[in-house]
Design brief:
Layout lengths: L4 H5 L6 H16 L6 H23 L4 H16 L1 H8 L11 H21 L2 H27 L28 E6 L5 H8 L4 H9 L2 E3 L10 H10 L8 H5 L3 H10 L2 H8 L3 E5 L8 E2 L7 H7 L3 H7 L8 H7 L2 H21 L5 E7 L17 H6 L5 H25 L4 E6 L19 E5 L13 H13 L19
Parallel strand pairs: 1-5, 1-6, 3-4, 3-5
Antiparallel strand pairs: 2-7, 6-7
């Protein structure tokens, strides 16, 4: 490497090492202001600028300053804005194929080869001019983002979800029951299972009834998107201050996650002396949260357009080794790790309920990817990825695995915990189906166990938004009015 490298590093021609990552961060921060903390943005800036600088140094071992700079810019820009670049070419439905590895790999591969041919065959003086132009461009883009930040008319305002707080009656119960809510993601109700899979879930239903459960035969969720369905469950209310466009916008995930942090259900149990145990990817401000499960929505929003995010949802899932997929944290590996950790935590929670506890547990089961067969044997991640679309057989097997484990869990709770309340439910029905009937998106599962078998208020048509209203009225002498059972289609902008 040349002796004057130190002088090069502080030269204006290497401004891109700072301005390119800074533009990436500013762009994401502006898109999702109030959902991304300054500390998160600073962390990603340090990571991006550090990798950019390291890549430049490695290229400088063999190449000139201008060649190293331009190749670094190409690699970093494509990596950070991968999906955004693809979207510029998806101007017809046929071009949507660029979202799949078998198309975007040759597309970007060819573009990279052509770019390298240009770099290596062009004179240094011309490369210097191109580098000057790109450095100037990144400065202009960065200034534009700074102006956007301070001029409200130039950016989309993120309006956070604001729901009404419920006033609860004081609970005078002496022996307060511990409450376990187990939510199975995308677990279909009876109507959906029969329509799409020609499957009757009667064995599981009868096994629960035999154990003293009430099972709603025609239950429904009120939203067909996990984040909003869970929010409506815990708030015991509908989302009131968001337009249809805002519900369909990517930022709704962050808004819902923030709103769930403090919700009416957790407030009720906290006010009444319950310990709050949260075994889910959502965060509660009250009680305990397991850091291994928490899903940092800020990270998702910041990195949604990067190559690594797209690859974890597609390209990397084709790797035949489960261990390598674990290292790369593919969607399959992430779901598997999450579910295994969640089973472990739920069994721990059963043993930790000496005082009244509210325990929320959320499984990514039987939601795709369908990781196990009905006996619980883990499948090849690659095979799962290739056979996930409209795979009713794999879905039913995963559901049957869930049924077996849920019966074990309920038996363990009843054996260990005095006077428990157990709620088994789901956020929505199976949407990974052919000839999808959107009305069946809401066909979900609701079953409730109470030791006194008092199920007053629960009906076959119990819905998510009223589930805790009924339970609190029934068990804790509240007088909460039941809300109209509405079905709100919010998945159009996301699925």
């Amino acid at each position: 490497m040349k002796k004057n490298l130190g002088k090069e590093i502080i030269s204006l021609s290497l401004l891109f090492i700072i301005t390119l990552p800074l533009y990436f961060i500013a762009d994401g921060f502006n898109k999702y202001r109030s959902l991304i903390q300054a500390g998160t943005a600073a962390y990603y800036f340090l990571i991006c600028s550090g990798i950019t600088f390291l890549l430049y140094l490695l290229l400088r071992i063999k190449l000139s300053k201008y060649k190293s700079s331009l190749i670094t810019i190409w690699i970093v820009f494509v990596f950070l804005f991968f999906r955004g670049i693809i979207n510029q070419f998806v101007f017809t439905p046929k071009m949507y194929v660029l979202n799949y590895p078998m198309y975007y790999i040759p597309f970007f591969g060819t573009a990279t080869i052509l770019f390298l041919i240009f770099v290596f065959r062009t004179a240094e003086k011309i490369l210097a001019k191109h580098l000057l132009f790109l450095n100037s461009l990144f400065i202009v883009l960065l200034i534009t983002e700074i102006i956007k930040f301070y001029v409200p008319a130039l950016h989309r305002e993120i309006k956070l979800i604001q729901n009404d707080k419920i006033g609860f009656r004081k609970v005078t119960l002496e022996n307060k029951p511990s409450v376990f809510i187990i939510l199975m993601d995308e677990y279909s109700g009876f109507n959906s299972l029969e329509k799409y899979c020609n499957y009757k879930n009667d064995d599981f239903k009868n096994a629960l009834i035999k154990r003293g459960f009430f099972v709603a035969l025609n239950a429904n969720s009120n939203y067909n998107l996990t984040w909003l369905s869970c929010l409506s469950l815990f708030e015991m209310d509908y989302i009131k201050n968001q337009s249809k466009d805002e519900l369909a916008h990517r930022s709704i995930y962050g808004k819902a996650a923030k709103a769930i942090e403090e919700n009416n259900t957790v407030d009720f149990f906290k006010q009444n002396g319950y310990s709050i145990i949260n075994n889910s990817f959502f965060k509660f401000r009250a009680g305990t949260n397991d850091q291994e499960l928490l899903h940092p929505i800020e990270n998702d929003l910041m990195t949604e357009n990067t190559f690594i995010t797209l690859a974890q949802h597609g390209l990397f899932n084709n790797i035949p080794s489960n261990k390598i997929q674990q290292l790369l944290n593919t969607v399959n590996a992430h779901h598997n790790n999450y579910n295994e950790r969640t089973w472990q935590l739920l069994y721990q929670s059963i043993r930790q309920t000496d005082t009244p506890a509210f325990v929320y547990t959320h499984f990514f089961i039987p939601h795709a990817p369908y990781l196990r067969d009905k006996f619980g044997n883990r499948k090849s991640f690659k095979t799962i990825h290739q056979k996930v679309k409209h795979n009713h057989k794999a879905y039913i097997e995963y559901l049957e695995f869930a049924n077996r484990e849920l019966l074990k869990i309920t038996d363990s709770i009843k054996a260990v915990v005095k006077n428990p309340v157990i709620v088994i439910t789901s956020d929505h029905g199976n949407r990974n189906v052919k000839n999808r009937d959107r009305k069946l998106d809401y066909s979900n599962f609701i079953a409730v166990y109470k030791q006194d078998r008092n199920y007053e208020g629960f009906t076959d048509s119990t819905c998510t938004v009223n589930l805790f209203r009924i339970l609190l009225n029934n068990t804790f002498s509240q007088n909460l009015p039941l809300l109209e059972n509405k079905k709100i289609d919010v998945a159009k902008g996301h699925l």
